[in-house]
Design a protein that fits this description.
There is one protein chain. The chain is elongated. It has two helices and no strands. The relative contact order is 0.04. The protein has helices at 3-12, 24-85. By secondary structure, it is an all-alpha fold. The chain has a domain at 23-86. It comes from Laetiporus sulphureus 93-53. This is Mitochondrial cytochrome c oxidase subunit VIa. Keywords: Membrane, Mitochondrion, Mitochondrion inner membrane, Transit peptide. It is found in: Mitochondrion inner membrane. One of its GO terms (molecular function) is enzyme regulator activity.
């Protein structure tokens, strides 16, 4: 067949426009499949982190809490021992010059910090 006849035959037959990769129906189903896969993955990930929280984090917090309680109990026993040795009072800490230095003078409310506790902290106003 000659080239002109073939071109005339191709032009006479109406054609629908084709797409290179997919049709619109296929694109919709692929999008829906991706959304389902995304929701499934999100549910699996949420379950994973829920299990990690329940079976790893909560027991770890409990173990750390018990450890801190034991350390603080030892510290309290040591403080009571020191008070018993020194007549009911804790011994004065050493007056090292580098302890409790104020770079720009005192605080607006005095020499002691905002969270000053006279049972634990050294009173800086008596220096």
């Amino acid at each position: 067949m000659s080239m002109l006849a073939r071109r005339a035959a191709l032009r006479a037959i109406p054609r629908a426009r084709g797409y290179a990769n997919t049709t619109a129906e296929l694109a919709k189903t692929q999008w829906a499949e991706k959304q389902v896969a995304l929701k499934t993955h999100a549910a699996e990930t949420a379950n994973l982190w829920r299990r990690i929280s329940l079976f790893v984090c909560i027991p770890a917090i409990g173990v750390c809490g018990l450890w801190v309680r034991n350390v603080e109990a030892e510290h309290s026993a040591h403080q009571k021992h020191l008070q018993a040795e020194h007549g009911g009072h804790l011994p004065e800490p050493p007056a090292y010059e580098y302890l409790n230095r104020r770079a720009s003078g005192g605080f607006p409310w005095g020499q002691n910090t905002l969270f000053f506790n006279p049972r634990v902290n050294k009173d800086m106003s008596q220096q």
